[in-house]
Amino acid sequence: MNICSFPAFADPRDGWGHMGNGAWAGWMMGWGLLLLLLTVAAVTVAVVLVIRATERPPRTAPPAVGRPDDGVERGRGILAERYARGEIDTAEYRERLATLAGPPGDPG
After folding, report:
1. pTM of the model
2. What does the pLDDT look like over 49-59, one tens digit per residue?
3. How many domains does the chain have?
4. Residue 90: partners with Cβ closer than 8 Å, 6 or more residues away
5. Does 32 reside within a domain?
6. How many CB atoms within 10 Å of residue 79?
7. Spatial separation of the C-alpha atoms in residues 80 and 76, rounded to whole Å
8. Higher pLDDT residue, 91 or 63?
9. CA 30 to chain centre
10. What span, in angstroms and rounded, lies between the C-alpha atoms of 7 and 83?
11. Structural domain of 82
12. Does residue 64 lie in a domain region?
């Protein structure tokens, strides 16, 4: 059988669409358009989710550098709390407080 002669076997009253002369063509085109839009939306959502999942968190600014004696003030506060709780006596409190104050020009 020759493939070129295949259209000769079609019923001439059906037309080429074989769907009642296009009665269903509008519905089929509508479903095709709907499926196309749903596919595009699904791919877009998938791409957005992948990007968000693999994206690095935004960098935060480094903590602000405070005054140089912030560590000393914090140490004095901890020392005062320990003295108030009775963990250290007056002599040890004064000794550690003097160590925190340090002599002028001493880096430690």
Report:
1. 0.35
2. 999 888 877 67
3. 2
4. 83
5. yes
6. 19
7. 6
8. 91
9. 37
10. 104
11. 70-101
12. no
